[in-house]
Specification:
The structure is a homodimer. The mean pLDDT of chain A is about 95. In chain A, helix 1 packs across helix 3 (about 60-70) and helix 4 (about 85-100) crosses helix 12 (about 335-350). In chain A, the strands form two sheets. Chain A has a nine-stranded mixed sheet with strand order 3-2-4-7-1-8-11-10-9, sandwiched between helices. Chain A has two domains: about 5-120 and about 210-225, Peroxisomal Thiolase, Chain A, domain 1, CATH 3.40.47.10; about 140-210 and about 235-385, Thiolase/Chalcone synthase (Peroxisomal Thiolase, Chain A, domain 1), CATH 3.40.47.10. The two termini of chain A are about 25 Å apart. Chain A has helices at about 20-35, 50-55, 60-70, 85-100, 120-125, 140-155, 165-175, 220-225, 255-270, 285-295, 330, 335-350; strands at about 5-10, 45-50, 75-80, 105-110, 195-200, 200, 210-220, 230-240, 280, 365-370, 375-385. Chain A is α/β, with parallel strands linked by helices.
Chain lengths: ~400, ~400
């Protein structure tokens, strides 16, 4: 099994891109990543996209985007696992290079939610729930996140405002990131008073749907130094699932897929969670972050929320274990199928020391974790800087 | 790079499965394949599905199906390339085993088109065209196939009835296959008089949308003999793309993606197209078969249609190079995202000598080719029997 490295990255700003198509967004990010790697083409293109069929009446994005990039001919297809689609596209690229089947791979996540009207827009995120048992009864992903959060609050005797640190941290980091969607700061105290979307999940808790594309280039690690001045090693890669529905889990407050995929990826990298220099977690809702921290063993059961306390010392850019360093889904925005690739691109910039105002000093290892549904799919990648 | 073998197969009949859900169909095929391999579980599950979001308002099928199979926990996600979704799921499983990242993989294609009403049903297949330039103007996949066929007929001076041999052959083989959807025979002469769908593509030319699931188990070839009495080697695996839209191709009558993926897969297998014992081609429309035969160099440009002549001697089960031996998409039916897995399962049965009434005597090598759109994605796998 060949070692795999990231040798180029690119992304568009995360916005409501009203005037740009899914192909245009993908093309921009793809070109940036290829240019960053000093390549004109790649041997394969794997696309992460969650809701193209629903939002954009578009499948076969592999062929579409390869064509838009002038690369028609190369191997290409899409990978999907709800909001974890970007993560599983990265996993597929990793497998292809690790197998030696191809040399260079462009991994590209893209989503275009804006300019979609009617039912498609209202229901799109809910197609990642169970259509026959949940969606048909009117459930949405945010509604189910509300149930999960309520259960946590009751079982662990936690108040709503105690989750605020995650959102405050995300916006503090996003405010420094020119590519982030919402760059406003959140004042302490405002989280608990925000308008409710699906109680107790509020507007300042749920990450915004957004448009954007992010891309990275993979190559065999032993050839990466010829391609990039600062290649980053994909030291661990793992995907795990849990039941699609919360109701089928013996313990809905335990994210088994997160535990399993993180343990596998860290084991491959020869690291413990505590060794990491930063975490890009899937903060689609604050409850996801709290439960992910617990499932990875970084905090005790019922105390994941506490990581965001004490003025954010622990999770801020200068803290013990910085979290969502470019703003996370909450502030940078959540272009669903692209999110997992954004996370990996941001972690790569950190490990290259090119994160600018968002730099975590001396970052050498990072974990990027992308979730589908409410922990139904968990994709964990561990990245590490390659010593020069 | 590890050699990869198929150690188990399973499938449901192809039907209008009005009373069965996408999860139920998948579960049945998955269980059959695992049982056939003598396994209780697999390390990973890759799902081929084309239109779940459109037809069934369902994404994250990886998590859903892993859960339905009692395998929640394992790595799983979906792969999509329009009607070539099953083929790219097989490709992903091949990469995972070839890399040594996992040992056993369940590859499962599933589609459920029946019991879908309204716009979703009418437009689903068209989401594999370009939404912004084709679908928005009312084009459907069948309409575009009609344009392509007309262009072929004019350029090569071929009459409609001259394509009939492909459909006659498909139905002759499908009539022997209990899992096929349409088991009627087509009489010579009826093809040219069939009701038109999108002239010149008729009802007896276009393969029917259908429901079904097919699955296979992959394992490293060097361990396959311990798992299966008759493992089949995946001797070649390749994916290639062409532009999504016909209008962007310099020569729409040349299927560049077919040529490229077939050449790569055959080269990996150390075979020439003429060495093959049977072909499972993507006969969604007869024009696709004619153009695929030409692109693979099996016939001259403009004479692919002639392969189906002379009472089908060349392509029948007892012919020189049997085609679509279980009825192909036309007679077995086209459960879109499952089709590529059906093809591989059928080819495997041939190479195991377990094809029953559809057996090609002495078959040792087979090529299975799955197309997305009108040749926008081409996935080619070459399979070969492993000598005992």
């Amino acid at each position: 099994m060949k070692s795999v490295a990231i040798v180029g990255v690119g992304m568009t700003p995360v916005r409501e891109h009203w005037s740009r198509s899914i192909g245009e967004l993908a093309e921009e990010a793809g070109r940036f990543a290829l240019e960053d790697a000093g390549l004109a083409t790649a041997d394969a293109l794997y696309v992460g996209n969650a809701y193209g069929a629903t939002y954009n009446q578009q499948t076969q994005l592999g062929s579409l985007i390869a064509g838009d990039l002038g690369l028609a001919g190369i191997e290409s297809f899409s990978c999907e696992a709800g909001d974890a689609s970007g993560g599983v596209a990265l996993r597929t690229g990793y497998l292809a290079v690790a197998a030696g089947a191809v040399k260079t791979v462009l991994v590209l996540g893209v989503e275009k939610a804006t300019d979609v009207v009617g039912l498609a827009r209202n229901t799109a995120r809910s197609v990642s729930l169970n259509a026959d048992y949940e969606t048909v009864n009117g459930a949405t992903l945010t509604a189910m996140a509300g149930l999960l959060m309520r259960r946590y609050m009751v079982e662990h005797d936690v108040e709503l405002a105690q989750f605020e640190g995650f959102s405050i941290n995300a916006h503090r980091n996003g405010a420094r990131n020119r590519k982030a969607m919402y760059r406003n700061l959140l004042r302490p105290g405002s989280f608990g008073k925000a308008p409710m979307l699906a109680e107790p999940v509020s507007l300042f808790d749920s990450a915004p749907d957004a448009d954007g594309a992010a891309a990275l280039v993979l190559a065999p690690a032993d050839e990466a130094v010829d391609l990039a001045p600062k290649p980053v090693l994909v030291a661990g890669s793992a995907v795990a699932t849990d039941t699609l529905m919360l109701q089928d889990r013996r313990d809905p407050l335990h994210f088994a897929a997160v535990q399993r995929s993180a343990a596998q990826a860290l084991d491959q990298a020869g690291l413990a969670a505590g060794d990491l220099d930063l975490l890009e977690l899937h903060d689609g809702y604050t409850i996801l972050t709290a439960l992910a921290l617990e499932a990875m063993g970084l905090s005790e059961r019922g105390s994941g929320w506490a990581w965001a306390q004490a003025d954010g010392e622990q999770i801020s850019l200068g803290g013990e274990l910085p979290l969502c360093t470019f703003g996370g889904l909450k502030s940078r925005g959540n272009p669903s199928g692209a999110t997992g690739v954004y996370q990996a691109v941001e972690a790569t910039l950190q490990l290259r020391g090119e994160a600018g105002d968002n730099q975590v000093a001396g970052a050498e290892t990072a974990l990027a974790q992308n979730l589908g549904g409410l922990g139904s799919t968990a994709v964990t990648h561990v990245l590490s800087a390659i010593p020069e």
